Amino acid sequence: MTNPAIIDCDPGHDDALALLLAVADPRLDLLGVTTVAGNQTLDKTTANAQKILALAGASDIPVAAGCERPLVGDLTVADDIHGESGLDGPDLDGPVAGTVGVHAVELMRRLVAGSPEPVTLIATGPLTNVALFLRLHTEAARNVRRVVFMGGSTERGNTTPYGEFNIVTDPEAADIVLRSGLPLTMIGLNVTHRALATTRVINEFRGLDTRVGTVCAELMTFFADAYRRNFGFEHPPVHDPVAVACVLDPSVVRTVAAPVVVELGGTYTRGATVADLHHRSGRPDNCEVAVALDVDAFWRLLIGAVHDLGIPRPLVTSEDR
C-alpha cells in the first residue's frame, strides 16, 4: 500500500525541511504541494515551495497557490522569524518550474478525488486552504485518510500567550477542520519545541557536504538567530517536519485522543487550542494530540532524508503516479 499525501504549507524555514523530508522518504507518495499565506505573503510562500522542490530535484511535483488571506481579518506575516523572503539565509536563486494553473483548493480536489487510495493532508501552515476544501468539496473529502496539522499547543503559544502562529493566523479555518469529523492529528508546540536544531544538528547537515545539506544548515543558522533574538531560545525548534515524521513513522510521535476546540472569541485567548487531555468537558474525542517526541529518531529520520537527497532521484513520470 502506498501512502499518498498532499502538503499544504507556507514556507518558512521549517516548512522547507518538511518538504525535503516528504520528497526524500519513499514511504510517502507526495502527490502535490499547495501553498497558503502565513509566514509570508502568498507569492513568496509559493515561490519558496518551488525553490525547495527544485533544490530537492522534485520540480515534477505539482504546486498550486491558494488563499492569500485568512477567512476572517487581515494577514500578519512572520517576517521577524523568517525574514523578508520567508526563507532568508541561503541563496536559493535559480530556475524553478511554474505552478499549475488552478487554485490550491481545486488541485486538492483533483488529487484527492483521483487517488485510488485515501490521501493524507499534511498542513504546516494556516488551515485556510484545507478548511475551504472540506467545505466546498465534501464528496472528494470522503477520500481523505486523515489531516495531520502542525499547529496549536496543549501549553503555551508563540504568537500570543496561548496561541500558536498557524492557528492564530486563521482560527476560523482551524475551527472548521476540527469540527470536520475527519481523523485528525494535532502536532503542537508542546512537542515541536523538543525538536531543537542544536549546533551539533546544524553541523551534521553541513557535514553531509551536499548542496541540500548546506542549504539546511544555512536555513537553521538564520532560524537560530531569529529565535534567539525574538524568544531567547538557545536553539531553534523545527516545527513542521515533525508533522511529516508522524506520517512516515508513527513511533516517532506519541499521541493521545482528546477533544480539541479553538477559542474564537476570547479577548486574550483567540486562536488558542483547548485540548481536554483529562476529558473534563464531556465532549467526544475529535483529535489525536501529540504529547511526546522521540527526538533522536526524529533527527535520524530528517538528516537521513537530506543525506538521501544527495543521491540522484529517479525520474517520476505521470504513468508512475
From TrEMBL:
Keyword annotations of the record: Glycosidase, Hydrolase
GO molecular function (one): hydrolase activity
Database matches in CDD domains: nuc_hydro_IU_UC_XIUA
Pfam families in alphabetical order: IU_nuc_hydro
Domain Inosine/uridine-preferring nucleoside hydrolase: 6-300
Record has Hydrolase as a keyword: yes
Name of the protein in question: Nucleoside hydrolase
Organism this protein belongs to: Paractinoplanes hotanensis
